[in-house]
What does this fold into?
Amino acid sequence: MSTQSPSKVDFAKVDEIIQSCGAKKSNVIAILQKVQATFRYLPEDALTYIGTKIEGLSPATVYGIATFYNQFSLNPKGKYEIKVCDGTACHVRGSMPLLNALKAKLNLKDGKFTTDDMLFSVDIVSCLGACGLSPVIVVNGKVHPKMTTDALNTVIDVLLQKERGE
Amino acid sequence: MTNTLFIDGKEVEFTNEPNILEVIRKAGMNVPTFCYRPDLTQFGACRMCVVEIEGRGIQTSCTMPPEPGLKIHLNTEKTRRIRKTVLELLLANHDRECTTCEKSGHCELQKYSEEYGIRDIKFPTKQKSEFLPLDTTNPSIVRDPNKCILCGACVRACAEFHGADHAILGFANRGSKTVVQPMAGRNFINTDCILCGQCQAVCPTGALTVVSDVDNVWKEINNPQKKVVAQIAPSIRVALGELFGLEPGENSIGKITAALRRIGFDLVFDTNFAADLTIMEEGTEFIERLKSGKNLPIFTSCCPAWIKYVEQSRPEYIKNLSTCKSPQSMMSPVLKTLLPKYFDGYTKENTVIVSIMPCTAKKFENKRQELSTKGIPDTNYVLTTKELGRMINEAGINFKNLKEEAEDSPFGDYTGAATIFGASGGVAEAAARTAYELVTGKELTDVNLKPMRGVDKSSRSKEMELDLDGTKVKVRIVSTIVEAEKALKEIDEGKADFQMLEVMACPGGCVNGGGQPYSFNDTTIKQKRAAGLYKEDAELKFRKSHENPDIKKLYAEFLENPGSHKSHELLHTHYEDRFKGSYRDLK
It folds into this structure.
């Protein structure tokens, strides 16, 4: 048996989500989406919890669903989720130099995608369907079109200033 | 209704076969498969069973139902090419250290690679540095992810026997990164796994295997200071022979006894003796509970996987479990206590007890603290049927030609009631035979309680009502945790009308246990094994546990009577609430 330390997950919240979606096997994707929206990622204990609460699902099955879809993350995400589009159009118009500049700016090294202060996380996504505006980045749902390295730095700086309360 | 289709030009009849593969097999032909298991749902994952059907192209025969008039070709250039490519792709990703693999000689991947003459793999192969670590943390099952071919048989077995709500194994990740693993890649010991070993029993490769105790047992046998004593479980006698060319169900207890003596065991006893003892104790306990009305229905306690399940997932029902130890765990303390009285040179300390079991979870049971004395398990080692088969081969014994030998006395005598413990329903039938006579004082004229029998897929839940002199007693018999959970839900809801619940975690009971010789391609094997047990039952002189002369002697000379203080010390146990640390223990 595992000797777990007390979980940081607020199970009352998970319960609420399960109730709001309906505790049915067929609702598991919606439940996972809401849990991810609440916690900004899918904590392992939350997956186990869902697996024990819904009939017909085991923790291993829920874990399988969570790791199958790219939309789910098992690692904590930053407050600002930055999606860098690397679809064909964005790629040829310089999304990779943008990504490298972003990583340098946020000091993300060695395969890390979330900053230590949990403010920013960076994801590479395939196509956002805004090829006419390429290269594109999206910060928490807000689309920033025709990005350059300078514009990117400005976007990050503005967010940092906001966080520092300036 | 009978229809016909054509396989390689030959007209073949079919009736209600679920798929073309079964029709092919019934016609005496075969196609290779990794993922099709008749007792599990169809999956169509491995693409090895492809056939070419005129007008339909290439189809997987395990997922396509038969239709009249189909013209099926098994070995066309196309199907052979597909199978070879599948094999090469699997091998490219596989740890191919065959000679040191636990499954060597029984591996389906090895077998088909040989049959299809794979000598060269045209894809880049996986390097040792890319291999993932093994899970060797539990006493029963080893998981080697580097030998997994993702056929999903174990995932289905776990979901369909242990239950979709409790499935330990699942697929994780996607595409080339897909793995089969317990929740979040944990080791089995950190999950709610009950160690029934059914995943391992359907695995075509060495990805899931049984932890081997063979070398430990050899070491004890070669130690002149030690007296090594064997006890053989009921279902071994009808299964072990399969490894040496005997028919499934053929009783080879005499040959097994002889083989164990050749290997170097000092004494050979039968766990059946302890099964009779279990009935004496459990029957008495059941009658007492019936009288008091407390802790009913009583749950049988022979199956260690079931016990672990109740302890971790249904601790509220621990009180319903019979306090009787399993036959394995009754036999050992009886032997260790009494052998010194009957045999020179035996002491509690120098006696090593090795049980031969059809079960992987027994390797967990024997290491329980409450079944150990001063940290040493009462049953020192547990060998599965498969492991004993290996020892017999290692010792160079020609099993088929062995002369039958009798087991040692005085703990070798057993009744037919004990021998049927190996099949689902056997424990309940044995208990009923004794309980009837103890309660009514009358003789049970027909001991064949047929409604309690049956080990096939449709008999996983059975019921029988007994009339104990006016008192009606209903017995529910289930195999697989899925069926057990249904019975527990009835108790939850107050709908249960049975007073006794017999549970075996493996489908069909111990004849189909995780430690038995592989039988995943033939659903009739477990029925044949069970038939072998019922045949021995019918042939034995005594068929009720309380008539066993050795049991009578044991009570007269030592235990006094069932349920006595001495019995409780030696034959009864307590259970541990294992909810802490289980999946549901969050917050």
Notes: The helical segments of chain A are 11-21, 28-39, 44-53, 59-68, 88-92, 95-106, 149-163. Chain A touches chain B through 26 residues (CB under 8 Å). Residues 80-163 of chain A form a domain with the Glutaredoxin fold (CATH 3.40.30.10). The beta strands of chain A are 80-85, 120-125, 137-139, 142-144.
